[in-house]
Amino acid sequence: MTDTQKAVVPRPTALELFDGPVTDASLRRYLEGIPGVDAVGLEQRAAGLGTRSIKTSSKKWALDTIIELIDLTTLEGADTPGKVRSLVAKAVTPDASDPSTPRVAAVCVYGDMVPYAVEALGSHHSAGTDSGINVAAVATAFPSGRASLAIKLSDTADAVDAGADEIDMVIDRGAFLSGRYGQVYDEIVAVKEACRRSDGTYAHLKVILETGELNTYDNVRRASWLAILAGGDFIKTSTGKVAPAATLPVTLLMLEVVRDWHRLTGEKVGVKPAGGIRTSKDAIKYLVTVAETVGEEWLQPHLFRFGASSLLNDVLLQRQKMSTGHYSGADYVTID
Amino acid sequence: MSFLNYAPAPESTAILNLKSEYGLFINGEFVDGHGTPFSTISPANEKTITTIASANDEDVDRAVAAARKAYDKTWSRMSGSDRGKYLFRIARLVQERARELAVAESLDNGKPIKESRDVDVPLVAAWFFYYAGWADKLDYAGAGANPASLGVAGQIIPWNFPLLMLAWKIAPALAAGNTVVLKPAETTPLTALLFAEILQQADLPPGVVNIITGAGATGSALVNHTDVNKIAFTGSTNVGRGIAKAIAGTDKRVTLELGGKAANIVFDDAPIDQAIEGIVNGIFFNQGHVCCAGSRLLVQENIHDEVVDRLKERLSTLRLGDPLDKNTDIGAINSAAQLERIKTLSDVGESEGAERWSPDCELPSDGFWFAPTIFTNVSTSHRIAREEVFGPVLSVLTFRTPAEAIAKANNTPYGLSAGIWSDKGSRILAVADKLRAGVIWANTFNRFDPASPFGGYKESGYGREGGRHGLAAYLKPAGSARAVTAAPSADITDTALTTQKGSDK
Amino acid sequence: MSRLAVPKTYKLYIGGKFPRSESGRTYEVVTKKGAFLANAAQASRKDARDAVVSARGALSGWANATAYNRGQVLYRIAELLEGRRVQFIDEIVQSEGVSAGAATRQVDEAIDRWVWYAGWADKYVQVTGNANPVSGPYFNLSVPEPTGVVAIVAPQDSSLLGLVSVVAPALVAGNTVVVLASERLPLSAISLSEVLATSDVPGGVVNILTGSSAEVAPWLASHADVNAIDLTGAAALDWVDLEIAAAGTLKRVIRPEGGTDLAAPSLDRITALTETKTVWHTKSLI
Which of A91, B181, B392, C98 could bridge to B372 as Cys pair (CB 3.0-4.6 Å)? Predict the structure, then answer.
């Protein structure tokens, strides 16, 4: 650890929990003492939640809520300022034919695209307020995370300086899988610190576990605890670059950790499934899972997000169907 | 609005095409019964669904005679492969009419549509599909070459899984070459009668399956009928005892699936969230109207408070109400009589000093309802820890060591099922070995499959249903006038082995 | 001049010990022609009760012994029977009044039958158990286990072979037994108990009562701590009443058999006194 990092303070509740310094050994003892996950039972529970039938008024509310929870995302090597401007326009006006359509929570872009997103949002940018649209940037050598800590920290700081409200970092899966929990922990703590703005406020930190690479549910559960202990504001399933990305069981599992953290400390941590959620039908299953696992309170942008791009248009099609009574078509929603 | 109060999502009853009255299904036709007809009602609102004929002794005679004739003239002479084809047809017809059957089941029984749709009816089709394939492979069933069928099987089924229990009974009986007279429960005859229509669509030869509706007297006449070769019964231990007595001294064979008071054992290293789900599924599935329900939660003392807290939190998200609503988790209690029993035993639990808890939960004004209920501070001597409540009532007890858990789990005259929750494989297997119960679920609960034998130890009955063992309950070895036992768990005799092994050469 | 013989005192066999009946009663065992052979103990219901307690106490150890071990212990009985062939033949000749050849055939058949059953101990589970291909991510296995305490009414017309034919199969799976020996021909049963007592069969695994089956059997049939009753030798008793009594606690019942070769060796006799247990366990890589 460098001297600058030593000054960094992780989540105070974590220190209380550990009753002393957080070390590799103490983390291991803690994380490995967490009850295991039975995959079959977890997947059955998720499947059961997926059979809820959401109709009429509930469905209308659900569709609007989904939109409000979306991090509208473009994360391509081919991204350009023009593409980002188009994305922002879609975020601000999802459905030009229906002004009552809510706006999304945030746009999510690569770090170098943050200035264009901020500029394009203009007055719609939340810029630290409770209203408006946030700019989220992926950072820390997204998606692989294979870079030196210094690069990851400057990647983060750059995006924050450019006006990012939220940072979506990736954990070092290699370190996690080889049991170097302390390293993963320290990195999250350091990135969190890099989220600090000059005025002392912090950009919100979403910690991407890349659950597809962690592979087992036990690993996902431990990594979720680890990310929360280190101070993550959100735990996020995936980069979208690795399959499988978000699944309902893995999201359910992360919600259970968030619920348990709340039971333990009273603190509320957010969850963001990302990648692979493309239809309203699927997204509604996630809403049900959130509501029945951790409570309806979590269905707010500061506690739950969908990382998605094509989901928005499917929700808009469903929304149009509900208001007009007939099925809509792809030409009646805009591409971004 | 509260999202969690999902808008109503009722399954439509328009798919049903019910008649205003149903006769007895004898010899392939619906005929009038000669007992006093009765109504079947929906337990969710007490409204009459339809009128059902009642079979008196002469009707039972007629049904048995039809089954005997079909056995002698048709079914016992038919090739196994043709019998199998009929069963395959039935499986497909059940799949085709699955939604209709699920709606009818939930209407008549009160169970949530999501259960009848996702559990009961798919398993019914699976059961026929599984046993269909056995019909021409009986040589491999474990009863030696050319095993013989038994003849006419009298089958009496309960109200908790009306159509599924019908499938458990009829499928193996027909596959083995027997013919059937089946009596559904008085409060839930509807799906059996729809099933009779399916048999007509399948063109099953007349008399191979006869379905007679009625109350206890009808069942009793069937049990005592001299031309019945086999009795298969699922229901209460008390009635099972009566049947065992009634058939004493006869040549009848019998399988009995009776009551239970299953322990669901949660160790402190259990996968806790799945264990909570398993506890909920174990006792609140089908309103707890399940003979193998995990009605005694045995939780390791050091995690008792946490488990109970989490359980209460989880129960608060259960939805009780209209069985036909797709979001209903807990449906109606099947009958006024059953509701009364649940209430009585729960009151006893309270008066004996156990602590009663139910989530806030509005009960509909019409129909029969009981909120999911947990009793803590229960000790092994409490009646709610010993007697089968057959309702959504969980008794929580604690243990300190695996040995104590096993001792408490086995401390019951019943022995149908048990659950074990732990992350430690060696302990699960060792505990499973020592539990005196016919079905052990480890890190799961209430799973059923046609390939998996199901049945009890001790006063939970004898014989197995499901799998090869379930088939054996309808077979006897070739050339054997009767099987060795009145109640074999697996009637497996290789004729080659029955020849005397001696030194007389 | 012939030596004066030393006659044997025939007693009950309960819990590995040889008590007299607690009732103090005995009855005369006679030859086919009616000559006095011995005074056998006439067991009472309390002796039956004690025998059930012994059998229950021995159950866990016997049922949980490894199948290989049970097989060897049972085989050891056959070895010991072989060593006492002459004694058994003499007793059978005396009490049944049959020829030495017939008695020899009975003893040899009994020994061989015992060997046959001993070999099943580590096989019956494989033959009657099952791996079940359920449609879901579950390991699913069905295995037979001993039913528990088994009461047996032994065949009445065969001193040794009938007894062996009902006792051995019950022991294979790990049940413990309380057997009512042939009332008229009990001597071989007592001699068998002497063999058992000097073998590796733990005390209480086999308990042998002599006396009136009609008197004692109803107590066993209605005993709540008996799990199964084998009425093979009960054809001459009021066996329907016994079956009805057994139904009180839903005991497994083997109905009486008749004929010349009753209780012929069969795997069915083993499985009839077993319970099939099915274990489900979740399966997952992740």
Answer: B392
